Amino acid sequence: MSATAAATTTAGYLARRAAQKEKVRILYRRALKDTLNWAVHRHLFYQDASELRERFESNKHVEDLDTVDRLIADAEASYNKWRHPDPYIVPWAPGGSKFTRNPTPPSGIEIIYDYGREDND
User: Fold this and answer.
1) What are phi and psi of 63, to 5 degrees?
2) Which of 7, 14, 22, 32 is most buried, with most CB under 10 Å away?
3) Which residue from 31, 17, 118 is spatially nearest to 77, judged by alpha carbons?
4) Distances from the Cα of 20 to the Cαs of 60, 67, 80, in angstroms?
5) SS3 string of 24-45?
């Protein structure tokens, strides 16, 4: 194998490994946030979050790229299966109950913020 081919192979390996690490990070964050939807009390969340972390840490040593891809696919399938049907949404975030409750006024309407302090000249 030439030096160029080895460098290409190494670059491809590193790029795929970096993409896998990013997928795992995103999956862990989504699963952790979804765990908070299922836990009614904070002490229950801490226990569930610890168990979730242990599940991810148990496969930390796996180095084979195809095995890692399979583990990611299995974890995503499990996440999609056990996702909360009605997740908590912060009220002022998109999809929340207060989102755009007070929309900006249409153009042409002037809002006077100094009401009650009019000039009495």
Assistant:
1) -110, -25
2) 32
3) 31
4) 12, 11, 18
5) HHHHHHHHHHHHHHHCCCHHHH
Residue 3: band (very low, low, confident or very high) from pLDDT cuts 50, 70, 90: low
Tokens of 25: 């990070």
Query: Max CA-CA distance within the chain?
Result: 91
Please tell me the pTM assigned to this model: 0.71
Residues 69 and 9: their CA atoms lie apart, in Å, by 18
Q: Which residues contact 84 (CB under 8 A, 6 or more apart)?
A: 34, 37, 38
pLDDT band at 27 (very low <50, low <70, confident <90, very high): very high
Token look-up 């990013």 returns: 22
Residue 21's alpha-carbon distances to 18, 55, 69, in angstroms, are 5, 15, 10
Asked if residues 46 and 32 have their Cβ atoms less than 8 Å apart, the reply is no
Q: What is the rounded end-to-end Cα distance, in angstroms, of the chain? A: 91
**Which residues touch 93 (CB under 8 Å, ≥6 apart)?**
99
